[in-house]
């Protein structure tokens, strides 16, 4: 481990080889590999987006319908609270969505026009945050390196400029600055959409459009539309997850409290609470799927696994919110104190874990505070590594809190609540939590993308390898493209989580163990080694020519964020524009390379400790 410039610790292992910008995942880590351009968009993906739209409309419509019903009944206090939990979170999300649109569309329209005008340095200058070097690579500097170094600060404003001997060819049909009338219409259209609180609806429809275009087009446009689809999907899930825990979760607790306090259940109340609960469970599962699809070091999540995860969160959040509503119906003041205290403890626990999601220190603190709100209701993994212990601690605390809250309500409930009714409610909380735990075990034991928790699995696309007299001489990916499979310096990333240990039958030679340890610490786990007959000069020329044919490389001067964090090119919108611009101006899809891929282990150690 080496100290980062901000004092955090990072691994010095080089496990981030250049990835294609058009590939959402590493072929070696996919159950089924496809050609360059990523996983194809399927009708099942389209149905999932349509169901997400249905969940979005049902959640908002039932809340507004219930608020209108409260108003007609003369319950103005409940009407005001219900409406506040609909309007305020939605407005916050719309402001964030419109801010992203302003940033993306302003630079995108300028970048496209520049790229088509001359096809040279002016075209790339609109992307921001990357510099193209003479060998066809694009390097970026840290936008905010937590340590506040001057070099990183200056590089944040760097603009890309092609320095190649010849400009990259522009793809026909994708260049050209849009007419001014179209630009004005787009601004008016997006402004009206966001004022009407329909920004997420437009993003869902746009994702459907991009998915259809990526499926119907040929290789070049397919890569471009697929990459844009991944960016749009990431934005939707981030916005909807934020809205779910700012709107649906408080709304669910409020409506359950009203039902328990009034000792009666209106049909609209039950409909609104059910829609809010489904929205919460749906968005957590969708977020995990899109996050896994965006990373090349993680296996994708199947739809069966998503359903299991939805049921897991549906029942655990349901038990949690019912316990909250029971306690709040009797102890309103103490319930507020409990919520604030729990949020403070959870936020401190998250900050203490040193998460690495955002690009700046203050954004990270705000993110941790938002995750603290999520931790009031359910588990949300925010740190790399085995999560069994942390999950066990969280659910143990949650179970103890649910028992205490429900017991307090049962003891101090009002006289109008009968014993039989109270016993049914207590059993409902217990059974719901038990069902949620059951589906959690089903997910981790049978449906987890990385395999059962009690066993280890190898990547499905990695062959068994060639075993010779000297042992394993290489591991060949059966799904590699011809150019990738012929690279002699390629390292296959995403090894299995656990490697089988081998034992020597003979006694080790004195001094050889230390040499083997030093050698193993510098070599990757899997490496396709050249044949002994190949000369170094020939191999260098071959690998250089192959790299030149692969197109530009976007070198990001940042250590790659570990799962479950998003990659920097998903949360830093300048890097997004760089990728999309290079997709437009280059006939070959660019590759992405993070800092640890650009140097050896010793160089990383020296760099990290001296910056």
TrEMBL record:
Membrane-traversing stretches: 40-57, 77-98, 266-285, 306-327, 333-353, 365-382, 421-444
Main location: membrane
Regions of compositional bias (Basic and acidic residues) in chain numbering: 501-521
Keyword Cell membrane: yes
A GO term from the CC aspect: plasma membrane
Record membrane topology: Multi-pass membrane protein
Gene Ontology BP annotations: apoptotic process involved in development; engulfment of apoptotic cell; phosphatidylserine exposure on apoptotic cell surface
Region spans: Disordered: 1-32, 126-150, 485-521
Domain of life: Eukaryota
Keyword Ribosomal protein: no
InterPro entries per the UniProt record, alphabetical: XK-rel (IPR018629), XK-related_scramblase (IPR050895)
Protein's cellular compartments: Cell membrane; Membrane
Alphabetical keyword list: Cell membrane, Membrane, Transmembrane, Transmembrane helix
Family per similarity comment: Belongs to the XK family.
The protein's name: XK-related protein
Organism: Betta splendens
